[in-house]
Amino acid sequence: MAPAMTTRAGFVALIGEPNAGKSTLTNHLVGAKVSIVTHKVQTTRARIRGVALEGDSQIVLVDTPGLFKPRRRLDRAMVAAAWGGAADAEVIVLLIEAHRGVTKGVETILDHLPEVARNRPVALAINKIDKVSSDVLLGLTQDMNERFPFVETFMISAEKGYGVADLKTWLAGMMPESPWLYPEDQIADLPMRMIAAEMTREKLTLRLHQELPYQLTVETEHWEERPDGSARVDQIVYVARDGHKGIVLGKKGETIKAVSQAARAELEEFLGRKIHLFLQVKVRPNWLEESERYSEMGLDFKDGNA
User: Which domain of life is it from (predicted)?
Assistant: First the structure.
């Protein structure tokens, strides 16, 4: 008789500065879009777990919020979530941008890394390698490895996929022997309601550019499965001020209509079925201080305390 296949499973925390490419890398490794991707910093709020399969290994990716200097309660809760995600993982991958090199933010992360890693393997992934010359890349690799004892260094482009397969193979081999933690067809551990809210928030973020970088949040208030296989999804966009409501709605409701159409199309593609999406915009001046809003984002309200 052939020996039974040994399965492996474990958690990998992707950490780095905002916009380093963690969400893009998560989506590429999973092979589907599970994490919000925009060109804005600090768009990932919750520790979104994407589930990637490689051979007999299940790699659960903790795509943490970017690490930055927190100023507000939401900032502090996001940073606490990022370090918490790293502390819970079997392997940590620090993602830095090739063209930005060792920034002050990277130096701060390196200062905290020994305390968080606690003898767990930490790999370095240098992203956006297509933006620099090979000489710059080699210099950066040497500099980073002199600053911290990384077990492996990978040179990748998360957006274009260069080097991602090598990283995925290595991560699969680093996972401990274990039964798989999620069903084979599950690609994220967020409830569908939260994934749907994140999709809408991404479309708002892309549409509004600098006007409302993150004075808004989206919640899926109601999800109704219909007999014909479709679903009705009702969402609320919370904003902090009356003026913000006008920006989100747009002239004659054009902005919210375009956002709704884009979010619905992506949700339909993701689920492979018809979705009826309805958005409302509500002013809630103190939503940044309400614990329920943090729970909806997968963050701990208490972590936002100074």
Answer: Bacteria
